[in-house]
Structure formats: structure tokens, C-alpha cells
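If you are new to this repository, start here. Below is one unmodified record pulled from the training split, so you can see the exact layout before writing a loader.
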Amino acid sequence: MNKILRLLFLISFLGAQTTFAQSEYVNVFLGSSGDHGQLSPAASSPFSQLSILPQTYPTLHVGYEHLAKEVLGFTHNRMEGVGCQGSGGLIMVKPFLGEADDKERLSETNENAGPGFYEIDFEEGISAMFSVNENFGIHEYHFPDGAKGLSVNLQHSLNNAFVDNEYRIEDGMVLGKVRSKSTCHAGTYTIYYAIQVSGDVDWGQDGNFLTAHLDEKANKVEFRIAFSSVDISYAKQRLLDNEKLDYQALKRKSEKRWNGFLSKIEVKGDEERKALFYSLLYRTLQSPFLTSEADGSYRGTDGEIHQSKGNRYHGWAIWDNYKTQLPLLELVYPSMYQDVVSSISDLYRYGKYDFAGPHEPANTVRTEHAAVVLLDAKKKGYDIHFDAIKDSLIRDTARFDFSKPDKYLEAAYDMWVMSELFEGDESQHYLERAKTYREVWNREFKDLTKRDVDRMSARNMYQGTIRQYRWNVPFDVQGLVELAGGKDAFTAQVDDFFDNHYFNRANEPDQQSPTMYYASNKPWRYQSLVQELAVDTVIQYYFNDNSRGISPHIDRIYKNEPKAFVRTMDDDAGAMSGWFVMTALGLHQPLIGEPVYYLNVPLFKEVKLDNEGMPLTISVVNYSVDNRYIKKVTLNGEELGRLWLRKDEIAGGGELVIEASAEPTQYGADNIWISSID
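And here is the target side for that same chain:
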């Protein structure tokens, strides 16, 4: 009988393991303390602008510090993982007992959070719970008996970014629109909102400061809020559409939505590593924000309302995440990605700014290299109407900055993109402009004996060194090999770069540099290096405050804890988390603009991509944490004989089997795809 009971328990346990919801692996507190990611445990929903989070004292860029125990109130939006001293933090709500006092702080005693919800208790006897699904959220407050209320600051923002606010109180709802400066104060975005508080409420008004005086016997109070990027009427309707949902029902609905996105990738392996994986995948699903309504209405960057057949998104950090987060979204959510790239294309129709303009429909950061993303999408089979935006694309290239060494290499990349987008004489014109990078590379990047090659932001470059930016020619790696003096010299220089810890994992300028090994004499070193950077202790001298520290960071980069990442390392809208997720899958795109993926041994014994009905399973034979080299690759039973895949091979689904080895091999070394401009 005991054996039968044990067997039944084992079956039950295994069944529970296979149905374990991915959201339960997510640690939303990852990267939420110190300058270690600029992330938050906000109640949020995939790709939705509304998110609810405590404003702590002291605070960080997202308005929250995990170790802080004092709370100023709760705010409703943010741009996760970006810098510039904060972005978002609109509409602060604060519960109070007795009389409202804006200077009084609440003292946290306990908090709990997961995908879609955040809950907190205070010494003062108040508890609060928050959940968000899409652009609708509920605050549920629990109060003791006595005088109480909610103060609502409609002009609050992080980093003093508030511009103006208009509102009216109508049928018990607060209806309005608030404008704020975008990230880095570069432009202005507008959010339309609708607010309703349950029970008998006596609203006090003092400009943009409202006070909801509540019934003294009210022990549970709901504060309900809806956002729209289009108009107040949509926010109001969203509030009405969700009027029957309470906090628990909304929490369940949000969790289901999160699991719908997270479950598109299934991984099998170590439980702690799975928790890190899903926590980082979760981070890549916060932005861009869905800004269109169900009827296809959306606002463009011209401030006008337009119509679309598909969804429209906004809230870009393309310079930061075009190498990682955006390719990951394409790989995992291809149907959604068509709408994402159509939204990027719209920037060229209605007003594209490197950072932000006066009529942004959502909080946003920057859009450089948008054309790279569009070319990449076109080559992967997405519908991009280049004829409609051709003139705008050409005008955009006229604004490129060729005055600094780093900017020159980046502009040359876009010139190569233009040569791929156009034909004939136009294509040749841009190709020749792209090739001029070689003169600048020889002048600025070839000689590594100059005294400033290791100094951050030398020669007026942006957040990087000469050594770090010299690899930033992904469209012509074969040309880099030749400029470096041939394959042997190139290999020695790549070795020197990594062996002496000149790389900077705290920022994006050299993010693609590990792929250089696939053009060297040591392609196997790439396979080991990406795993070292993902899961091993590393030595990191460079930081995102433009410094080369005397004392290096010696630790893992990716840790499932509040002090994650390297100090000063912003996640940058999923850019850094996306790199880890791609490494875990065993796939990295060396050149955004060509549908080619380099292979490495995945971080799990088995990975399964949903692939929209054409699942791709990536299995590792001889899996071990020590087996990091590729011995053999088969795709659907046929030996591949190479270390890279094409997008169409991934889209076709099936089974990719990677046989791993503890020792370096030369497998596929004679058939490596390397970019070349010639």
C-alpha cells in the first residue's frame, strides 16, 4: 500500500511540475534595488502603459527602492529599466487616516508581488492591493474605522517631468488628460484617464490636488483607474467595461494573460535557472506599449487620431534593444511583431524623432536604428510598405551624425541598411557611403597604443571606449578581419579584448562583440563565452556612469535578486534581459538586418518555442553545465554541418538537436556565415 501511495504521490507531483504556471517562476523584485537594473515590482500587464507601484522614500528611476520602508503613495506608469533619473510616475494616490497630510509617509511592514499584482501592509493599519490587466487597474485598500481618505495628486511625476493636466468630475468619475515630459525630458506624451472610487465619496478639489473623503465605517475601498492613449471617452468606457471585476478577479485575469505570453517558451532544467529565465523573459514583455483601441483608433506622433487594421504600439528604446529585445519578440511572438514593425514604420509617416517629439502617444526613449529593425523585418517576411515611407527614410538619413567616431560607425550601419532597402543607383550610393567607415576605423580604431583607447567617452563618444566601439560594424565583419590585419591578428585582438576584461556588459555599445569569435580562428570560444557572461562570475571594470572603476565588479551579471546585474547597468527596456534569454535559447542574431542566427549550447536541456503552431524543440545531447561546446547539430534528423540557422528553418519548426562537448571542437568551423559588405 505504501508503494502505491508513493507512486500516486509521484504521479501527482510530476503532473504538477508539468502544469506549473510560468508566472509562478517570476521574481518581480529582480533588479529593484540600488542602481542594478532600474526595474520594479509594479503591478503590470504585458505591453501596457498602466502599471501601479509604490513611490518610496528614497526612490530610484522607476520610483521604487526595494530596501526603502517609507512610502509616499502609489503611481501609475513608468518606463522600466531606463535612466535619466526617472520616467513616468504619474497620478499619485495616497491613503490616509484622519486628515490628509502630503508630508506624512506610510511605513511598510510587508509586501508581496508577482506578475500582474502588488500587495503591501503598513504599520498605520492600512493594507493595499493592486492589480492591472491591460490598461485597467484596481487599488483595493483596507482601513480601520475612523476618518480616512485618498489624496490624489494629478500633477505628480518622476524627475519633475509634469507639463499640465485637465480634468472634470462627472457622474462620480474623474475624467482627464495629463501631459508629461518623456524620458530624459526629450518630448511630451499624453495619457487620458478615468478614475472612480467606490462607496460614498466626498471629493475635495484644490487645483490638481483631489481628496476623496471616505465613509468612516468603510473598511474596504476600491480606487479604479483606466488609461487610453487616444481619448478620454476610451478610458471612461474601459472603466465601465470592467465595472463587474473585483480585485481578485482582475488578478486572476492578469495572471492568465501573463501566462499566455510566458508560456510561448517552455524550458526544462534546473529550477533556479528556470526562475531566472522566466524572471528575465518577463522583463522583456513590459514595452513597447499597446496604444491603439479595439476599433483601430490610435494617435500618431503628429498628435492626430488615425485608424489601423492591426494593433499599434509606442514607447521605444530602439538604440538600446534593437539587437536583443526586439529580435526576441519577433522570434517568440511573430503575429504581434507585424504590428510592432508597422508601428515603427508609422514613425516615418507621422513624425520620427531620435528621442521624442511634442505629441508622443506614450512615454518613450529613442528611435535610432529604426530602419535597421524594418529591414530585418522585411527580410524575415513581414509586410513593410517602404514606398510609403521612402522619402521620410531619406530625410532621416540627412540628420545622421558623422562627426564622432562612434556615431560614424552607427551611421554607416544605417547606410548599409539603406543600400539593402533600395535598388540600382540609390542602393550603390548608400553602399559607397557605408564603405567609408573603413577610413574612420583605420584613423580612430586601428591603433590601440594611444593613451585614450580605454577611457570612457574619449573623443566625444557616447558611453563607450575605442576598444568597445571598434567591433560595432556588424554589417562587415569580414571587412573588420581584414582591417585588423587578417584572421590571426583579428583573433589575437578579440582574445585581448576579453582576456583583459575591456568589454562593457553594463551598456550596449559592444553587446554584439562575442559574435566576433565566429569570424576568428577560435569559433568555439564564442560558445563558451556567451555562457560565461550569462551564468558565471565575471570581472567587469566598466560602468554605465562613464567610468572605468579601480575596483572591478567580480560576480555574476545575471542574478535573481534585487541587486541584480552590474552596478549602474540599466536593463534598458529589456535590452539586457533579452540578451540572456537569447543566450538561454542558444540563438543570437549577429547582424540585425540579416535573418541568420548563431548557435550556442542552450542553458537548458530542452527548450520549446511555440512558434505559432509550428513548434521548434531545441534539445541538448550530453547536457551538462560543463559541456559548453558544440560537437554536432542536426535539424529534423539531418546533420546541419554548420553553427548557424536561417529564420525560415526556425519558422519551419521541428527538432534541433545540439550535441554538447566538454572540450572545444572544430565542428562547423569551415562553414560559418560572416557578414561582408563586398
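Two things worth knowing about this chain: The first strand starts at residue 53 and ends at 57. The mean pLDDT is 94.
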